[in-house]
Write a structure and sequence with these properties.
The chain is an alpha+beta fold. It has two domains: 76 residues, 3-Layer(aba) Sandwich (Glutaredoxin), CATH 3.40.30; 105 residues, Glutathione S-transferase Yfyf (Class Pi), Chain A, domain 2 (Up-down Bundle). 47% of the residues lie in helices and 8% in strands. The chain has nine helices and four strands.
């Protein structure tokens, strides 16, 4: 059976949520962040060369990279559900937003995270560049979810699954206030009301502070020491 290796409070929340949306059976193996310094546990890091989450195992297969995992599950176990075919009028929107998740939104958030966690002076050009990149991607999302119910259009898809973590849990690493983005806030509420999302959060991240809403959630402890491991 498909096993989802989920590092709690991480972008791997996409995978159990996807499985719940598709209503497919899966085993969920939970991992907790190692504190001081903040790092994924060795048992999870040992699964793939990149030492990162998410990871799935399926028989003899071990697969990482959330986009690849989402596509694998959709097409192997979900009969293509939550993906749009080329014949669909919103196919191009689906492709754009599916890949925007890691190529645009999460990339910008991670860039800001790196300058925040290494205590770069906010007046330095690199900090301003990182902050501006986040403003640009958030503005792009704000416009889209103001003109459409979901990112691909009027149909909920894997593009929503891919992007949502960056607007919610990622803010425990980058304390952004989204109060100035009313369309994003309404979009977050729509996601938060989905039964599959609620079930996935209950199974995979029970007890985590809600990250849905404008004010940023509490910042993860131990962030200042994470680079002691990698640098």
């Amino acid at each position: 059976m498909l096993t989802v290796h989920h590092l709690q409070n991480s972008q791997s929340e996409r995978i159990p949520w996807l499985c719940e949306e598709l209503e497919i059976p899966y085993n969920l193996k939970l991992y907790h962040w190692q504190q001081d310094p903040l790092i994924a546990p060795a048992s999870l890091r040992a699964l793939t060369p990149m030492q990162a989450s998410p990871v799935i195992t399926d028989g003899e297969l071990t697969l990482s990279e959330s986009g690849a995992i989402v596509e694998y599950i959709i097409h192997k176990y979900g009969s293509g559900r939550l993906a749009l075919p080329p014949s669909h009028p919103d196919y191009a929107h689906y492709l754009h937003w599916f890949h925007f998740a890691n190529g645009g939104l999460q990339s910008a958030m991670s860039g800001l995270y790196r300058v925040v966690v290494t205590d770069v002076d906010p007046e330095y050009p690199i900090y301003k560049l990182a902050a501006n990149a986040v403003r640009k991607v958030l503005a792009h999302v704000e416009v889209r979810v103001g003109e459409a119910t979901w990112l691909a259009g009027e149909e909920f898809t894997a593009a929503d699954v891919m992007n949502f973590w960056s607007l919610t849990g990622m803010r425990t690493f980058v304390p952004l206030d989204l109060s100035g983005y009313p369309n994003i806030l309404a979009y977050m509420e729509r996601i938060g009301n989905r039964n599959a999302y609620k079930t996935a959060m209950e199974k995979g991240d029970r007890g985590r502070e809600s990250c849905i809403g404008g004010p940023p959630p509490k910042v993860f402890a131990g962030l200042g020491k994470i680079y002691e491991v990698f640098l």
